[in-house]
Write the structure tokens for this entry.
Amino acid sequence: MAPAKKSIMVIKRMAQEEKRADSPPILALRGVTRSYSESMAVDRLSLEVAQGETLVILGPSGCGKTTVLRLIAGLEHPDEGTIDISGRRVAGGREWVPPEKRGVGLVFQDYALFPHLSLSQNIAFGLKGMKPAQRRQRVWEILFLVGLEGLGERHPHQLSGGQQQRVALGRALAPQPQVLLLDEPFSNLDTDLRLQVREEVRRILRTTGTTAIFVTHDQEEAFSLADRLAVLNEGRMEQLEKPDMVYNFPTTRFVADFVGHADFVTGEVTNGSVRTGLGAFPYQTDLPVGTPVEVMVRPDNLLLSPDPEGNTTVVERRFLGPFNQYVLRLSSGDFIHANAPSAVVYAEGIRLRAELRVACLTVFLDATASEVA
Ligand code: ADP
Ligand code: MG
């Protein structure tokens, strides 16, 4: 019996971001630049954050993430560009609004709680203008929100790391900031706790409708928290879109490589398709027939089946717990990585058929340009 022909669904790249609410952005950076003597920390950065949105900034260490947050918070002056919060210019030109007047809350990786104050006093710290009864009410609400009700009289050293980070979050949220800035807040927590606190933070940001910028170098964290994801590299914005679009349709090679694992298989443009060692895929382009291109392939997007006539040979198997990662050599000479379930074991040297499960075709022309189908 002939094998059933598999249909390949092509995810169409959304032409435009879904139309955002008409309300003006809570935060807007335009052309913001900040350099230090030896380096450009932030380079002409522009972004907008909508009411209630969580924007995650992802990038390698030293790419300028902390500097961006410090600029928004008013702990740094931009060399150029403007920053607006709720339609008010807070930095740029002659305008300068000091940090305490910007309505910005901060959470850092070292929780920076006051050790000599109780949790309630830590949370009440930013509520100086309130009447005592109101303040007590707000502290109670916050303790409840972060799941520490009844622990208000404790001191920070009597809490676990995860609990301390929840207090730090509560303290930042108590004055109801316009924007909450979180700088790698989970990096001091161990893996299990990290996951738990991450879910907790997500719930809190959603239930309070808080507008937040969350900075991390951890892509899983970024994917799980982001409404939209900004990838930063050497102070510049590489891509800003919904997380699945960034993963499936990276617009630069840096993003392709930095976000998940990417292989690039060589191919060429034919009439209405691009032909590669993995097969030919429908592809509309104005590029002339014969133009050499490279197609991005992610290891989780390949389906493997044993086939003596298959297009790949197993070079190596890496057991990674939930899955096996195979290094495969295509007849064309390209090497690719492919993930298969943990229990599916293929010996080195055997031939397999490798097919793209879903052709989210990202085609690169050279080191900087990409075309996307
Ligand atoms: P990230 O948070 O992404 O790791 P940072 O914003 O801390 O990156 O730093 C971006 C770049 O700016 C780095 O090259 C860093 O060395 C430099 N930098 C940051 N702060 C200062 C400073 N106060 N003085 C000099 N250089 C700095
Ligand atoms: Mg940093």
Q: What stands out?
A: The chain has two domains: 4-250, 261-372. The longest strand covers residues 39-49. Confidence is low (pLDDT under 50) at residues 1-19. Helices lie at 65-73, 119-124, 132-145, 161-173, 191-208, 219-225, 243-248, 253-258.
